[in-house]
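Hi R.,

Here's the chain you asked about this morning:
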Amino acid sequence: MDEVVAAYSAFARHGNAGQLRWLPEQPLQQRPLMSPGAAWIIRRILAGEAQPAANGSEPAVVPLAWKTGTSYGYRDAWAVGVNPRYLIGVWVGRPDATPVAGQSGVALAVPVMNQVNSILISRLAGREWPADPRPASVTVAAICWSGGQPLPVGDQNCRQRRQSWVCSTTRCRPRYWQNDRGLRVAADCPQACSRERLMWPLPLEAWLPPQERRTQRLPPIDPHYPPLEQGSSAPLIVTGVIDGQRMQPLPGNPVLELPVAVQGG
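And here is the predicted structure, written out as tokens:
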């Protein structure tokens, strides 16, 4: 739990994740985990302020920002909270890792986290809470989903227009070539014109609705002049076994069966 809480400290330390210190004389050890702008935005999202207010203002003191987690088989129920002064980490489970059917972070860990948060707030009554000013790198803008860019009205890459906090965004702009019939062709095709289209990264395709995936967003391929590298296939991933994992058969059973599956490709 100390590692989880230390990682969440980046949201309150301008992107720097610091290791926990158990004694006052311990030196602070920290490293950059994300940019100050990204840390500020994520903390606001976890605090229920995912989008700017209509008037563009935001409270100087951030309310409790929190996240839950439940491990496979109901073995661990987690909740981590960040209030203006403290980090709160809660784990609920059995020390022998026995599953507790139905337990979850929301049902069991969050009530404990809220109770601890209320006690801490009551002890700080009358004191000045530390402010969380917006970094200079974060602005408010009307962006286009899914690329995260402010684009002119009518642009084909603007799927939906939303008001959002703006910092550095992760997106890709695949380049392709298109003929006069609107079909994708090879770069050396006569009369081919270069085009760009904003896309989510390939590893995220599985979480996108079908109409937002490459197969629907990019023009169809001209069978007479197909591009050499289509670049529209998701990477091949083998699931069911972890790199470096050691597996041994059960006593008395010489056969070791590994159920694996593939995704993408």
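One quick note: The two ends are 36 Å apart (CA to CA).

Cheers,
M.
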